[in-house]
Amino acid sequence: MMKWIKCSTACGLLFFLVAGISQGLGTGNNLQVNNNLRLEYDDNIYQSNTNKTASLKVIDQLELMYNLNLDRTFLSLRYRPAFTWWENREAQREDALQHEADVVLNQVFSPRLSLSLMDTFRRGLQPELIDRNTGRTQENQDFIGNTANGTLSFLLSPKTTLDVAGRYYLLEYDNEAMSNSNYRVSTAGLSLRHQLSGQTRVSGDARYEDISYDGVDRGSQSVFVGAGLEKTISARLLGSLSGGLQVKTFNSSALSGKNSPYGNVSLTYLPTSLMRFTVGGGYALMETEIFPFANQEQLTGFASFAYDITSRLAFYLSGAATRGQYDQKWMVQAGSSTNGVVDFNGTDLILQASARMTYRLNRSNWLGIGYGYTTLSSDLREDFVRNQYDVNWTTQF
């Protein structure tokens, strides 16, 4: 009981502190303050099959956003600390503070030249899906993730644009014993986009990607060459298609390189102005945090549905599947074992589904209820099934 009193008091003090700061700033400022208070029941907080532990959670996430919009410059700063308290968790980690921060800078140098920079930092304290929804952090391990993106755009003609882009991603665990799962992805490339008509846009791209890991060298380099098509098929149907060839080589002399196609496709259908369906999928050779593999063949699929039932009431439904195929020929150490099995082929399948309904009480307050389902079926790590139920209150000050 005392735990609940302490947690409720902390959340209440944070709420009123935020309200006071926001009101003190007054109207007309560039600072926006939001707060989301969520009560959640999680039936498997450790994402485990052998140590399945259920817990109530209280999560209070503050969101501070500052936007500066000038004639040629747009700057956006966003910081989202989230305090989480578990009713049934290890004594030393009954509560935790997570951090997320975003910086966006868009600069127009001339009518033909512009720059876009974005950086996202994440300090995570619980297992969850990360980065492009293609990986899952190891069970009960604290981690740091950072993604930096930059794009320099040249308008070659009214219908043609050349983008020079780069990306850097980092995943790093606190636990030294997890160092073999730390990795970094660096990407650089060119993309040429051309508007054929008001309904059709084509593109061609080439990029280089370098993946490096701590500990045993599972690093690799890939070259991608491909093309894309975006099409407004009708007033209610939109589609995009991209693909090409990926040439991947590995740092380890024990591993052979691989040439493989890659591709992504998506379709969006709008039966009415209030309703949207989206389906899609993709295939590529990808990085993996699962040691001792240096590569996986990843197939993904997703679907979503959004419906504005009324001006106040909205419903959302989504699902995703990620299947990673692992081959013993991509194990960097002969005789290495995963879950006690030595040199084998295996798959890693993650299924997700979620449903959410939100109701707008007034201009500043929303109530929501949600359900999330996640399951992992794997030859490489422990299987689990996880159900999460929540109610939340969002306030915009």
Explain the overall architecture.
- This protein is mainly beta.
- It has a single domain, classed as Porin (Beta Barrel).
- The chain is about 5% helix and about 65% strand.
- It has one helix and 22 strands.
- The chain has one helix at about 1-25, and strands at about 30-40, 55-70, 75-85, 95-110, 115-125, 130, 135, 145-155, 160-175, 185-195, 200-215, 220-235, 235-250, 260-270, 275-285, 295-310, 315-325, 335-340, 340, 345-360, 365-380, 385-395.
- The chain has an 18-stranded antiparallel β-barrel. Strands 6-7 form a two-stranded antiparallel sheet.
- A hairpin with a 2-residue loop joins strand 4 (about 95-110) and strand 5.
- The longest helix has 24 residues, at about 1-25.
- It is globular and about 50 Å long.
- The chain starts with a helix and ends with a strand.
- The model is unreliable at about 1-20, about 20-30, about 125-140 and about 340-345 (pLDDT under 50).
Question: What average pLDDT do the residues reach?
Answer: 84
Number of structurally distinct domains: 1
The CATH topology is what? Answer: Porin
| Helicity, as a percent range | under 10%
SSE run: HEEEEEEEEEEEEEEEEEEEEEE
Unreliable runs:
1-19, 21-28, 127-139, 339-343
CATH class: Mainly Beta
Query: What is the overall shape?
Result: globular
Give the amount of beta strand, in percent: over 45%
What is the C-alpha radius of gyration, as a whole number of Å? 23 Å
Tell me the number of strands: 22
So, CATH architecture?
Answer: Beta Barrel
Annotation field: number of helices: 1
Distance between the termini: 31 Å
